[in-house]
Amino acid sequence: MQTDAPKSELFPVPVWRCRSKDCKAWIREELTSSPSPECPLCNEGMIRSIKHLPKLVKKHKAVKKKKPEESWVH
Asked: Order of strands, edge to edge, in the sheet holding 26-28?
């Protein structure tokens, strides 16, 4: 069975992966909140690595904060 869906182009992406051989967890480096994260699944340390992944596409635009209305000032 052949599909006509195009394959996503893959790019080298820096990631953190779990040190444990039994754990398959990893996270994109750009999404971590710590300079040396712990594995969210097993709490082991993580090491830097590279994975070939599609580009991350943001689905929504940032919302601009409106200036407060000054209708209360006369």
From this structure: 26-28, 11-18, 46-53
In the Cβ-directed half-sphere of 40, how many Cα atoms lie within 13 Å? 9
Element (H, E) at 26: strand 26-28
pTM reported for the whole predicted model: 0.63
Instruction: Say yes or no to pLDDT of 3 above 80.
Output: no
Closest CA to 47 of 35, 58, 31: 35
Give the start-to-end residue ranges of the domains of the chain.
11-53
- 52 secondary structure, DSSP code: E
CA 39-42-48 angle, to 5 degrees, is 30
What number of other Cβ atoms are within 10 A of residue 38's Cβ? 14
Q: What are the tens digits of pLDDT across the range 23-64?
A: 999 999 988 888 899 999 999 999 999 999 998 777 776 666
